[in-house]
Amino acid sequence: MEQQSVIDIQKVSVNYGPIRALDEVSLTVNEGEIVALIGANGAGKTTLLQTISGLLTPAGGKIYFYGEDITSLTAEKIVRKHLIHVPEHRQIFTTLSVLDNLHLGAFHHYRKSGRKEMEENLEKVFALFPILKERQLQLAGTLSGGQQQMLAIARGFMSKPRLLLLDEPTLGLAPIVAAEVLRLIRELKKEFGTTVLLIEQNVVASLKIADRGYVISHGKIVKSGISQELLNDKEVKEAYLGQAIS
Amino acid sequence: MENFLQFFVTGATIGSIYAIVALGFVTIYSVTKVINLAQGEFVMLGGMIMFTLVSRGLPYWVAFFFTIAIVMVIGWGMEVTILSKAKGADPLSLIILTIGISIFIRGMAGIIWGKNPVRIEPFTANESINVGGAAITPQSIWIIIIMLAVVLALYLLMNKTLVGKAFQACSVNPIAARLMGINPRKMSSFSFVLSAILGALAGLAVAPIMFPAYDMGIMLGIKGFSAIILGGLGSAPGAVLGGLVIGFLESFSSGYISSGLKDAIVFTCILVILLIRPSGILGEKSVGKGGL
Question: How many structural domains are present in chain A?
Fold first, then answer.
């Protein structure tokens, strides 16, 4: 059975000046999936997410979101389609309160869906992230790193994502906190069927929560497959899991 | 004692004007990181357009709101026709652009209204009220009321509405704001509109006690600018505080020392305060990391 593809990226290339950051990258994410994009630093992972969310414009190729061509739309317009990017380094609004941050997540659809729906969403978020409820009046910048990351994801969820792009959600977090964040992402999928495209440096952990994975290297997709296959793949093991082949 | 009270009221009046002008600076700065050096021209336009409308026979309060609307359109026009066209220019270049705009507006004003000061009636009858030996003009009270109303309105707008929060979000982290669907361009236009309204209000309020002329914007702009530097660049409470401090310094030093020396004294005090607190009295707060 053909699954509905949420995002369909076809041969997208991106240049930074003379440097080719992405070279004809193709990738699809289906509804309800968590897909992990793994690769070394500078392989083009963040570039790809920024291209999808409209912060960068591709030099070639097409991006389809639920069948609609969004290649040349601006970031603000793409958000309105509920394609939500939670950027690297969290990027929360540090001098605003936790609650304000969450409210701003609903900014783009507030006028359409109104206050009641925003409050309902807020309840869902608080149920999933109780710590944020406790600290809702605190300035976001005073949260710990893990809490800030949860806030960033929660803020993304407030945008009612049909696709959530997560850029290194566990970067700089203690292992136990990182595990908690990944568990919450899994939870989001289970509870709300949220579709997620995830970038991670922590290859094992991300492949464990993901359904499928892509491996990107020097701006090219070099491998793709079911998570379990990738975890057992010789080359992946060698390149990213630091295990010598015995 | 009567003198003290008199100087105090004068200081609060003129300080309130500076505070409103300074809030105009902060509004634009916080979103765009541009210091709009044409801010003083908004104030001048407020006074001069009011004069024209009233002398054309428009009722006072109708003219009042028309003036605000016209200045607002000018502020908006300045943003969309000139500043937003300079896409990608860094704030410094944009600041220099605002200097050019300010010279242009002042020049046009000189041609339209001539070089002579004009007179505008105060809001209400001009009988001074005697309080403890100090003569207080009703216009002073109006100015202080307008300043308080502006502060309250801005506070409510910025902290109680989603648009206000989006506005703050743009200033904290423009890229993350875009990812929330907030358009920084629109917010930038909005900040110019808001700041033009503030400028026009300051001009309308001060016109009856100041005899506005085409070049009044320079002086008020510099004082308002000093107020934001003194209060802490980017801080709205700091702008109000800075404005009032400068107002009081001016009024007391011209009262007790010498009116010829007042500007020298004011700027010396500002320099001393900035040497002690280089980021201003209420410098921009920064909390933790996360906004990398």
Answer: 2
Crossing angle between the packed helical segments B91-113 and B39-55, to the nearest 10 degrees: 20
Which of A160, A186, A212 terminates a domain? The answer is A160
A80-114: pLDDT as tens digits: 888 999 988 888 898 889 999 998 888 888 777 77
> How far is A205 from A209, CA to CA, in rounded Å?
7
Residues A110, A122 contacting (CB under 8 angstroms): no
User: Which residues of A make CB contacts under 8 Å with B?
Assistant: 53, 55, 75-76, 79-80, 84-87, 89-96, 100, 103-105, 107-110, 139-143, 145, 148, 155, 159
Cα(A220)–Cα(A44) distance, integer angstroms? 8
Same domain for A66 and A23: yes
Domain of A52? 1-82+161-246
Give the closest residue to B121 by CA, choosing from B106, B145, B142: B142
pTM score of the predicted model: 0.83
How far off is chain B from A91, nearest CA to CA, in Å? Answer: 5
State whether ipTM is beyond 0.85. Answer: no
Determine whether the interchain pair A75/B179 forms a contact, defined as Cβ–Cβ distance below 8 Å.
yes
Q: Helix or strand or coil: residue B215?
A: coil
